[in-house]
Write a structure and sequence with these properties.
39% of the residues lie in helices and 25% in strands. It has 18 helices and 23 strands.
Length: 510
């Protein structure tokens, strides 16, 4: 499937099979806001659980919290969001479409990168086994030219943004000849800064109401609770606090389904370390998080690191884990070394000490922080789009199958009576009743069994269990594997084991 087609299929499949609906669809929806449907909510919950266990259960020195979405407004002054949580926006005067100026420039650089990759692939083909990629990329004039151009452009953009020189950002767009991707027009407005936070009010009367913000990230709920958790949990450095929850950003451009939403969910972990040890932990979390991604089996080649040229105001190192979405490699997770910026800022604004007393050194210090921050909705999209396949079968027919990793699949097994008579329904229903204590399972008796298999393939259910006449004689059923379509006969009493073994966290996470 071509990438554009795949992305369209992903969106329509997500709706048709009860994964994602547009928010308030009967009123024509709300831009970049989505609802998770009956199967989507299960998939999302399972992804959240997979992350939570890997962080909180698997690390003795990481605990979780669930802080409120509404926070004291000074939080956002201290964190820098009121002054600096802006994106540079630019409008196209002809198409009237709005863009993020930095994204237009980054997309241009990605094209240079693709050109360099093509040169490498061509050379690889030409030289075969004797090809030395490292030597090639450091000597080939074309690759060197593309890489240098890319670096110069990104460095200049980073400098201009740092210096608030928005006129130069526009100049760069013009010099590179960047056109509106939709209309091809190069007729741009000036670049302006736009604050992404949603404001709201606390209190009943207009005069006494306090201005608040919906949190644009979950991290600050962790920082303001640093001391509470450290003291009550008797935590020693290094330790981490994990949290999942909603965040809100008034995104300038939001045209990529659940990739960029105005209301979304983050899964964040802030790891507090001794000053000077942050780079060691930064490397540790880069490796650990990539391993977590690989454990789901979406293909290692679909991930890459992208180190930041332009660091956020709080960071001394930052990288993204990018995923190969249907629209190309894009950020899935951020790993940031946030220094002691946040805790120090909250100390200054609150007048409270946010320090750790280190018994070994016999002194107090403000810990440094390494953060891992992943969008749950983006992870959902990564898994969902990677799993959707159209397969041609041996007999020439085709099937649509959602090869979700079993550990996160919404429904673990569907149970069918082969026919609606001879007592087969009762046996199938009894199997469901026994399994549903532990697993989300589904009973289906409608249509021919072949159609029921196809329905579950498209839903992503790893196993279909069929009760037939032989079941009555020897207490066995057939179990059909979604991926291989192979069937085996097993005892009814072995079904729980079969499901349990396929979704053991120990096997997946390790
Ligand atoms: P981007 O550059 O794509 O705007 P970001 O660098 O601003 O993302 P972070 O502030 O690092 O993102 O947020 C951490 C994670 O939260 C991101 O890696 C992403 O997975 C997720 N995220 C951020 N913004 C959105 C959004 N609007 N919709 C869905 N997920 C988001």
């Amino acid at each position: 499937m071509a990438n554009e087609d795949l992305f369209k299929k992903v969106i329509s499949h997500a709706k048709e099979y009860g994964y994602i609906f547009a928010s308030s669809e009967i009123y024509d929806g709300l831009s970049a806001v989505y609802d998770y449907a009956q199967n989507g909510v299960e998939l999302k919950k399972n992804i959240r659980e997979y992350w939570w266990r890997s962080m909180v259960f698997m690390h003795q020195n990481i605990v979780g919290i669930d802080a409120a979405i509404l926070m004291h407004p000074t939080t956002w002054k201290a964190s820098g969001h009121i002054d600096a949580f802006n994106d540079p926006l630019i409008d196209n005067k002809d198409s009237k479409k709005r863009y993020r100026a930095d994204v237009l420039i980054e997309d241009y650089c990605e094209k240079l990168n693709t050109k360099a990759q093509k040169e490498i692939a061509k050379a690889k083909k030409r030289f075969g086994d004797s090809f030395n990629e490292e030597e090639f990329v450091t000597t080939n004039p074309r690759v060197l030219k593309y890489r240098a151009q890319q670096k110069n452009i990104l460095t200049r953009m980073a400098q201009s943004l740092d210096n608030e020189d928005l006129a130069d950002v526009k100049l760069l767009i013009e010099e590179l000849g960047i056109a509106d991707p939709l209309s091809g027009s190069k007729n741009w407005t000036d670049v302006k800064q736009f604050n992404l936070m949603f404001g709201t009010k606390l209190g009943a009367s207009a005069e006494s109401a306090t201005d608040l913000f919906l949190r644009p990230e979950t991290a600050q709920g962790i920082f303001v609770n640093f001391l509470n958790v450290q003291k009550t949990g008797r935590m020693k450095i290094p330790f981490g606090i994990a949290q999942t929850g909603k965040a809100f950003r008034n995104e300038i451009v939001a045209r990529q389904f659940i990739f960029r939403m105005r209301e979304f969910e983050q899964m964040e972990m802030q790891f507090f370390v001794k000053p000077g040890e942050e780079m060691k932990w930064y490397d540790y979390w880069k490796k650990t998080r990539l391993k977590w991604h690989h454990s789901l089996g979406l293909g290692e080649k679909n991930y890459r690191f992208h180190d930041h040229e332009k660091l956020a105001h709080y960071a001394n190192a930052a990288t993204d884990i990018e995923f190969n979405f249907p629209f190309g490699f894009k950020e899935l997770e951020g790993i940031h070394s946030r220094t002691d910026f946040d805790l120090k800022a909250h100390e200054q604004h609150s007048g409270k000490k946010l320090q750790f007393f280190d018994h070994e050194q016999n002194k107090n210090y403000v810990p440094y922080v390494v953060e891992t921050s992943i969008g749950l909705d983006r992870m959902f999209l990564a898994i969902f789009s990677n799993s959707l396949k159209e397969e041609v079968l041996e007999d020439g027919s085709s099937r649509v199958v959602l090869k979700l990793p079993a550990i996160v699949a919404p429904i673990k097994a569907a149970v069918f009576p082969l026919v609606k008579k001879d007592g087969l329904q009762e046996i199938a229903k009894k199997i469901v009743e026994d399994l549903q204590w532990d697993y989300n399972v589904l009973y289906d008796e409608k249509d021919a069994v072949g159609r029921r298999y196809r329905r579950q393939d498209a839903l992503g259910t790893p196993y279909c269990i069929t009760v037939d006449h032989q079941t009555k004689e020897d207490q066995t059923v057939t179990v059909r594997n979604r991926n291989t379509m192979k069937q085996e006969r097993i005892l009814i009493s072995d079904i729980p084991n079969k499901i349990r073994n396929s979704i053991a966290y120990k096997d997946w996470l390790s």
